Amino acid sequence: MIPAGHFFIVASVLFVLGAAAFFVKKDLISQFMSVEVMLNAANLAFLALAPRGRMADAQAVVFFIITVAAAEAAVGLAIILVIFRRRKSVRTEDLNGLKG
Amino acid sequence: MAEILFYLLSAVSVGAVMGMLLSRNQAYGALYLVLAFAALGGLFGLIGAPFAAVIQILVYAGAIMVLFIFVLMTINVRTGLPPEKKKWTIGAAILLAALLLAEIGLAAQGLLRASPPASPAESVKAVDIGRLLFSRYLYPFEITSILIMAAIVGAVVLSKKKDAP
């Protein structure tokens, strides 16, 4: 079978790509999508490193993670909608209200 | 067979995330992510977690990304973003990403050298996970349902118009 290390390598590459996308992208929605990528990479690493015989527990925990991620996405997108309605933009360069 | 599938799925998921990273258009990025999450669901199945694979494809590639595309439909007024002015942020991002990857590799060195096989021999049925959810993970299950309730109410309250009655 495929060793767990290979899955872990894929997971870490995905996580790093998500982190890089978070810094490169300049609008809130793309940044939010890269956060989702990082979350998924963490899920993959979690499942890949689950101990033998505890796969049912690991899947239950991943189920919780995905559920919480769905709730987080709903609230985050609602916040982005509110920002867009007030500022008419979701680009991070335009959101400089805290700058002196 | 499993090895071929593993390399194919990981190449598709990494390539799709790379496409999201490089695409100017947010809608294309969202579609790339649907592809990436579907391939990740395949990887979950390859690890030996079919339940997590189905949930991943249904909830992530199905529900959450559709939500993203809905919001993009209401927000996106331009077809693409203008090119970035500050080029140095891209270089800094690449440098930091390489540094982070090296750090993860260093931290997981022992794991990568030992490399235990990922897939457990026994097959987990969905029935077992359902039993676990209602016995050992009953409190987290109930707390998650309350959290979802709060998230629904919060999303509705946040996104309604202020002058609505």
Give the topology:
The complex is a heterodimer of chains A (100) and B (165).
Chain A: H1 4-24, H2 28-48, H3 55-87
Helix pairs in contact in A: 1-2, 2-3
Chain B: H1 2-22, H2 26-47, H3 50-75, H4 88-107, H5 109-114, H6 126-134, H7 138-159
Helix pairs in contact in B: 1-2, 2-3
Question: By helix and strand content of chain B, what is the structural category?
Answer: mainly alpha
Report mean pLDDT of chain B, rounded to a whole number: 85
Radius of gyration of chain B: 21 Å
Strand content of chain A: under 5%
Description:
The complex is a heterodimer of chains A (100) and B (165). Chain A has a single domain, classed as Helix Hairpins, CATH 1.10.287.3510. Chain A has 100 residues and is an all-alpha fold. Chain A is elongated, with a radius of gyration of 17 Å. Chain A has three helices and no strands. Chain B folds into two domains: 77 residues, Up-down Bundle (Four Helix Bundle (Hemerythrin (Met), subunit A)); 43 residues. Chain B is 76% helix and 0% strand. In chain B, helix 1 packs antiparallel against helix 2. The longest helix of chain B is centred in the middle third of the chain and has 26 residues. Chains A and B meet through helix 1, helix 2 and helix 3 of A and helix 1, helix 2, helix 3, helix 4 and helix 5 of B.
